[in-house]
Amino acid sequence: MSVDTLHHSSHAEAHDHDHEHHEELHWIRQYVFSEDHKVIAKQFLIAGIFWALIGGCFSLLFRLQLGFPDANMDWLKPILGGWIKEGKIDPEFYLALVTMHGTIMVFFVLTAGLSGTFSNFLIPLQIGARDMASGFLNMLSFWFFFISSMLMLFSLFTSTGPAAGGWTVYPPLSALPQAISGSGSGMTLWLLSMAIFIVSSLLGSLNYVTTVINLRTVGMTFLRLPLTIWAFLITAIIGILSFPVLFSAALLLIFDRSFGTSFFLSELYVGGEALAHSGGSPVLFQHLFWFLGHPEVYIVLLPALGITSEIIATNSRKPIFGYRAMIGSILAIAFLSFIVWAHHMFVTGMNPFLGSIFMLLTLIIAVPSAVKAFNYIATLWRGNIVFTPAMLFSIGLVSFFISGGLTGIILGNSAADIQLHDTYFVVAHFHIVMGSASFFGMVAGVYHWFPKMFGRMLDEKLGYVHFWLTFIGAYCVFFPMHYIGIAGFPRRYYSFTGFDAFQSFADLNHFISIAAIVTVSAQLIFLFNFFFSIFKGRRAPQNPWKSNTLEWTTPINPGHGNWPGAIPHVYRWAYDYSKPGAKDDFIPQNIPYSQTPESNLPGEKDDPELK
Amino acid sequence: MTSLLLVTAGILVLLILLLVFRVHTLVTVMRGKEVGKIGLSNKINAAGMPIVFALGLIGFYCTYQAAKPHFLPDAASEHGVKTDFMFWFTMALLVIAFVITNTMLFWFPYKYQHSEKRKAFFYPDNHKLEIVWTIIPAVVMTGLVFYGLKEWNYITTFPAENECEVIEVMGKQFAWQVRYPGKDNKLGRYKFKAIDATNEFGIDFTDSASFDDFVPRELHLPKGKKVLLRIRARDVIHSVFLPHFRVKMDAVPGMPTRFWFVPTKSTEEMRDITGNPKFNYELACTEICGRGHFAMRFLVVVDEPEDYEAWKASQNRWSEDNADYVKTLVPSFKALKDTAVVATTDSSMVAVPADSANAVGKKDSVKADTKKDAPKAAPAKGKNKGGKKS
Predict the structure, then answer these.
(1) CB A349 to CB B41 under 8 A?
(2) What's the gap in Å between the CA of B362 and the closest CA on chain A?
(3) Domains of chain B, each with CATH number or no CATH
(4) What's the Cα-to-Cα distance from A176 to each of A185, A268, A332, rounded to whole Å?
(5) What is the CA radius of gyration of chain B?
(6) How far apart are CA B269 and CA A317, in angstroms?
(7) Are strands B227-233 and B165-172 parallel, antiparallel or unpaired?
(8) Main-chain dihedrals φ then ψ at residue B240, nearest 5 degrees
(9) What is the nearest CA distance from A297 to chain B, expressed in angstroms?
(10) Model ipTM value
(11) pLDDT per residue over A96-126, tens digit each?
(12) Which residue, among A58, A66, A88, A59, has the nearest Cα to A511 in the 3D structure?
């Protein structure tokens, strides 16, 4: 990737090739193996975009099969080769596409691409630090992710195909190559890749937590942190506590596959022979997997919610409503996320008593989520709203969050889940609440912080078109899936022609596939905008969104160490927008109260040592 | 040819985007507009919010009406009727919440769009409001929890086995198989090590309860009677899904599961209700299990109780149809067709343990020989019903 050229061009006018004005860092140390959090953030962003394209293309491929089941797919032979047999996508490869789509989107795009980009980019800038606590570990975090990406990419090209047991890779299917060919070398590479991915994630999370706790600038108390930082901090803590459990599940699965153990395997008769494994439980894997799997969806969602808080407040020119309630709900969601995992397992055959407990806890988690949604809406109320593309995507996120979150209430009810588990109702639910919402958060973040990342502005008209097409398109793709799920259509079905019960909705599947093609194509507008604006975008002003947070006090193209002189001190919270009596409709965090006597509320004065 | 067209189209789109971008930048520069000045675009985006939302609501309503006829027919089981009601009741609550919140979400941006004449209202918090809108969802959630628990407890409290028709359903790559207990109402034990090409279930013929089990090609269920499915799988996780009955339970290798329900509508009745004379209930797999996951269909028939008994009586025993095979396992086995005594429906001809109250004076050869020749019975496994050993 040419991260080097990104920086190179933006500096081109100001500097010549000799880099006389820079520190004497070799370009490899400056742009490739960099310890600067801003460079690492952009590396994560480019990687995330790359993986999003692949994951998106996979979804188009299997949507072609679902929407046009009779079509001849031979035209895909140049790309897919032997996976197209007699004009159709091979059913095992179809499952591999579904599996890799899920794995790529959840882990590589929405965890690494979202947290990796924005936690890295914003934490030091918004808390007032020169860089992360350990630039070296931060660099390792990206390059471990890079290795993990390479392994996952290689797995796509093995002759037996990539992992194909669903992104949830339940054994015994994922443990037995004789059960599905993707469980051969493709699954081995999947497990190795995920193990290294988890290492990368842990390195990053440890850094984020340490940095937020230790490196805040003078005056930046916890209760003055922007909500983005709260979200990134709590997300990192969730990750530290939950990813190791997936690591253990993956490790035990590696042992079952390659070293003859039976953690998850028992009483198997496959390929004409009874296997020697005995005593294991497939349900154990599910517990271990979902112990990460559920917090994972909050790892995916919370950063997006934090970004949305920031963008909605800034563009409504109003404080985020209920700052402390927002923090409280982030903490409540984080805590509860650890004790609801088995709502993914209501019909696994586990003890029904567990079903009762997990239903209770799951429905409780709806409460802090609802509070967040209400607070966003209250922030909009009586605001003075500017529709930047970031703002549009943030409002879209709230809409997806509400729609998808509501259907979660039905799925969390174990008795109702009996009919809906493993149907398209679930697919609709998580694509709306996690996929679309977090994706919108990621894109909103890019639109909002692009000026800070690259010193230039994204084109806003293209942004508007991108938003409306994607927003309407995403609803067109995922909303109809609720109907298909209510009608009982199971997930991960190659085709529905085998059952009388699933003969309806052919037209709807057709429509969904077309909507998906349009929506994915609309992302090309964003890609064009993104890459073109890096080089030819209008130059950004100091504070294009008139925002209060500290990152806008750095130079337009911040260098190493972020602030050329001293790091600003912080005197107030991040949400003094449209304060009565104030000169402007915003007061940045680094403006002391002593300078704004006309707008100070009773009791607001500078911390004693900061006079 | 198609690829050439696609590539050309792609390039054209790219060029158009480039031109739009350049023209827009040039126009902005020429007009001398400041960056970020809020103008017509803001108004258009603001108006778009309620308009698109209204169109979306209309779309929601219309698509729902269009989709409704294609949903599954009303539940054909006792618990299914209850869970369906709970589903729609909850959905109604959710749709109300959806409409209220999203209306505000899409109306406020329009109403409070940027205006030079206004300033936003500095309103950082309202603790009372926070408490109110925390408590209301909490109360609603609690209500839903108790409602759901009631249904869940009903479904997961199993009746005694002797009140149910017990049927074994086994999943494998890529078909279902079902086994009935036969006249003794006891399913014979199974061992996975006994599975082979003939004995797909791994039926253990050292258990005398196995001899009258039968393996039909359709799953027949009695209307109005409790049915208990004993569910297992022998290679990977499958899942038994009977959509019309609202039944779902994973089939896990090494860990048998079960689900009970009461079918309430016979196949004939459903054919009347749906107006489809070819209607049939179906069993589908609903846990990803490999390349044939989408093709694991098993026919399900609900009979009136008399027809059900008649159907059961007409089924051949598996040991009968595979007598030669069973002989290789149990050499002293004599198929009914080979014995002088003709099989009748009279229960006294059924093989029973010699010490049971039902034993008749005339022992049939099957039972006597198995007593002498049977190998030491394997220790009863916890998951088995633990039938009496002969």
Answers:
(1) no
(2) 40
(3) 161-333 (2.60.40.420)
(4) 11, 10, 40
(5) 33
(6) 63
(7) parallel
(8) -80, 120
(9) 21
(10) 0.91
(11) 999 999 999 999 999 999 999 999 999 999 9
(12) A66
